[in-house]
Amino acid sequence: MSTRFRSGLLAYTVPRVLAGAGILCIAGCGANGSGGLTTPSPLPIGPTPGAGDQLLALTVTCPQTALIIGQRAPCVAFTSYASGRQPVVSFEATWSSSRPDVVAVSSLGDITGKSAGEATITASYQERQATAVILVTEEDALRISSGQASQGAFRPGTTVTMWLQGYYSVASAATGRLSLRISDQNGTITTTAPLTVARGGDFFLLSSTFVVPDASVEVCRTAVLEVGEVTITEPHSKTFPLWCLPIQR
């Protein structure tokens, strides 16, 4: 069975590229069971506080406080006013890191794990400050982003494509091998040719185009990272959103 393998160590622009190609569907919106590449939902943005509305607090929230090297994640700064409004001020805040060599932070609050250690991320806004502590570990690991993309009618005998995105980290060897495995209830359907990745970490996007077997009940995607004799797979639980897609009959 022929399999087309697409992979890339790409930046956050990947979802926009897929959307431009007309193959991006936000998680859960497709009637054929396909999902889309997604990013974490921001906190609700309230109306601009009126004159005299007292600023009570500034808060920083980071959905991911434990990163592997190369992993990126958003942090959000929002304010609390006496009126109850809580507008997001991530764009207006000034961001800094106590250890940029461990955790880098952008002007919008996006953080990146750079090396093993711990760093404090600070947002400053209107003479107030809020912080979050971020831990970065150096290990052989995979971290899968929630929400994935798919294309095609998932029926027996049809040709479909499944994408999987996330971050990899290689620490115990000079290189590792990264691939995408497609399987159903009977075992592996196909595995992409391994992509050699260097020590360190980065974003990845893997895809596989394959024919759905006649007997498949559902098809599942799994990222596989081989480092030396160790094999790491993610996701490994069906609780992960859109890991498996049901076959329509």
Explain the overall architecture.
The chain has two domains: 137 residues, Sandwich (Immunoglobulin-like), CATH 2.60.40; 83 residues, Immunoglobulin-like (Sandwich), CATH 2.60.40. The N terminus is likely disordered. It contains one helix and 18 strands. 3% of the residues lie in helices and 51% in strands. It is flat, with a radius of gyration of 21 Å.
Features:
249 residues, mainly beta, Immunoglobulin-like, nine-stranded antiparallel β-sheet, four-stranded mixed β-sheet, 1 helix, 18 strands
Low-confidence stretches: 1-47
Our estimate of the beta-strand percent is over 45%
**Secondary-structure-derived class:** mainly beta
Shape: flat
Give the ordered list of helices and strands.
EHEEEEEEEEEEEEEEEEE
The figure for the number of domains is 2
Give the fraction of residues assigned to helices: under 10%
**Rg (CA only):** 21 Å
CATH architecture name of the largest domain: Sandwich
Number of strands: 18
Distance N to C terminus: 22 Å
- Summed up, the helix count is 1
Task: Offer a quick outline of the entry.
The chain is an all-beta fold.
Task: Furnish the topology, listing elements before pairings.
Layout: E1 4-8, H1 14-20, E2 55-61, E3 66-68, E4 72-74, E5 76-81, E6 94-97, E7 103-105, E8 110-113, E9 117-125, E10 128-137, E11 141-144, E12 150-151, E13 159-184, E14 187-191, E15 195-211, E16 218-227, E17 230-234, E18 244-246
Parallel strand pairs: 3-10
Antiparallel strand pairs: 1-15, 2-5, 4-8, 6-9, 7-8, 9-10, 11-13, 12-13, 13-14, 13-15, 13-16, 16-17, 16-18
